[in-house]
């Protein structure tokens, strides 16, 4: 039976850190298991688009589910309140489940259910709900993805305990009578909220914050723990450490490392002061948000390298607040003030090697810059679709597509790409998918 728990993990002087609703216990990452990696042909699920123009007429498609892979969607929603209607009151979490779900045998997974089991007769997420902005309708429309990363929750830390039940209700309340509820159609929610009283105080603290939504059956089977990091207190990072392959794999089969998935809302570089989180004074070694952005890059890279050293492969997804190169900005790339160029070089240097930067048209470094530690990751969209011009940030002001950037992305450990585990990726770049936000969602499908 699904357990509904609310944790408040914080230091004495903190208001909020990590709020979770989980269906599994947190355990240490397991040793590697041996398993066969199923190779799935790569499919161009999004229609090809001419690189010289912005196409908006066709509806980009997302990936279909499969039992030997999982999908991560990521979306900067620019505030979760628009998705919480007045009807989403706090309900007991067990009320979301049918009797058959509650009594499901341990060890079974609805991901193995027959393809047509419990399918809605109505097109998912369309005629199901009259709500304009619905998280559950979004999940239904995209075939109930295993994971959805959210950025910019914009929840005041002190409001966390009251907001969590409403978010769970929005995720798990059936859209109508045809919407059956089961482990493969219900979700857990984990939030990391800001607790920096000096650097996250604008709008009464109603800013930043990341949320990790996981499908119940997937979380129970594959997720070892969801955690924050100790080097960020602005609510910008959440880490999902996955388990290795299930027991019973042939010892002679090749080893596939477990994955660590990192949900990121990166610092936006500005000239605003960055303050010492303890004293509130302008930080002497990091006086601006531009400076803090460079430090954030280093800390995130080091977190990734640490996870790799522990035996994980890494996938980082979210809003990086950086456009890597000319193909990532329309009508052009932001180059003024010059610090934006410095930030871009720093990001490309710390996360990507020469091969990936050349492929993305992103960076030509100096010898000094090449001495930086590098994750040597692969930008999945650029690796798969080359210099195709697709964007994720579409401001609400002005005409759709008149000014846009690809600042949201997913990048993975080089071995994940090299082993063929990345099946496909896509950007859902339409006004309809943008919904009330100023970013559109994107997704990646990875073999288990």
Automatic annotation (TrEMBL):
Binding-site list for Mg(2+): 76, 152, 319, 321, 438-439
Looking at the UniProt record, the site noted as Interaction with DNA substrate sits at 439
Keyword field contains Membrane: no
Q: How is the cofactor bound?
A: Probably binds two magnesium or manganese ions per subunit.
The chain positions of domain Endonuclease/exonuclease/phosphatase read 74-439
Task: Mention one GO biological process in which this protein takes part, according to its record.
Answer: base-excision repair
**Gene Ontology MF term list:** DNA-(apurinic or apyrimidinic site) endonuclease activity; double-stranded DNA 3'-5' DNA exonuclease activity; metal ion binding; phosphoric diester hydrolase activity
SUPFAM superfamilies, per database record: DNase I-like
Entry keywords, A to Z = Endonuclease, Hydrolase, Magnesium, Manganese, Metal-binding, Nuclease
* Stated family: Belongs to the DNA repair enzymes AP/ExoA family.
Q: Write the protein's name.
A: Endonuclease/exonuclease/phosphatase
């Amino acid at each position: 039976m699904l357990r509904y728990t609310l944790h408040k993990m914080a230091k004495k002087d903190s208001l909020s850190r990590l709020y979770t609703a989980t269906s599994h216990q947190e355990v240490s990452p397991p040793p590697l298991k041996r398993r066969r990696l199923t190779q799935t042909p790569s499919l161009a699920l999004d229609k090809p688009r001419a690189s010289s123009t912005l196409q908006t007429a066709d509806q980009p498609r997302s990936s279909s589910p499969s039992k030997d892979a999982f999908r991560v969607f990521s979306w900067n929603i620019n505030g979760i309140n628009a998705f919480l209607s007045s009807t989403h009151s706090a309900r007991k979490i067990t009320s979301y489940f049918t009797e058959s779900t509650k009594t499901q045998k341990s060890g079974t997974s609805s991901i193995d259910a027959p393809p047509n089991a419990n399918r809605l007769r109505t097109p998912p997420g369309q005629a199901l709900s009259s709500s304009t902005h619905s998280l559950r309708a979004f999940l239904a429309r995209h075939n109930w993805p295993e994971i959805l990363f959210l950025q910019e929750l914009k929840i005041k830390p002190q409001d966390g305990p009251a907001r969590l039940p409403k978010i769970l209700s929005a995720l798990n309340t059936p859209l109508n009578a045809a919407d059956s509820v089961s482990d493969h159609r219900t979700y857990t929610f984990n939030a990391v909220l800001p607790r920096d009283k000096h650097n996250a105080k604008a709008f009464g603290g109603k800013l930043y914050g990341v949320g990790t939504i996981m499908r119940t059956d997937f979380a129970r089977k594959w997720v070892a723990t969801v955690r924050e990091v100790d080097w960020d207190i602005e609510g910008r990072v959440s880490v999902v450490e996955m388990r290795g392959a299930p027991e019973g794999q042939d010892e002679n089969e090749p080893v596939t490392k477990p994955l660590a998935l990192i949900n990121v809302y990166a610092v936006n570089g500005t000239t605003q002061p960055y303050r010492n989180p303890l004293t509130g004074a302008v930080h002497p070694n990091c006086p601006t948000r531009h400076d803090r952005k460079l430090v954030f890059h280093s800390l995130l890279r080091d977190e990734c390298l640490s996870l790799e050293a522990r035996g994980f492969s890494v996938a980082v997804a979210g809003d990086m607040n950086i456009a890597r190169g000319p193909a990532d900005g329309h009508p052009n790339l932001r180059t003024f003030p010059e610090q934006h160029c410095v930030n871009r070089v720093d990001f490309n240097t710390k996360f990507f090697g020469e091969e990936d930067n050349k492929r993305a048209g992103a960076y030509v470094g100096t010898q000094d810059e090449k001495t930086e530690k590098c994750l040597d990751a692969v930008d999945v969209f650029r690796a798969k679709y080359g210099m195709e011009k697709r964007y994720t940030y579409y401001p609400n002001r002005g005409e759709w597509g008149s000014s846009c950037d690809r600042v949201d992305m997913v990048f993975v450990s080089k071995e994940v790409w090299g082993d063929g585990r990345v099946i496909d990726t896509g950007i859902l770049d339409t006004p309809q998918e943008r919904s009330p936000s100023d970013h559109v969602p994107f997704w990646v499908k990875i073999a288990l």
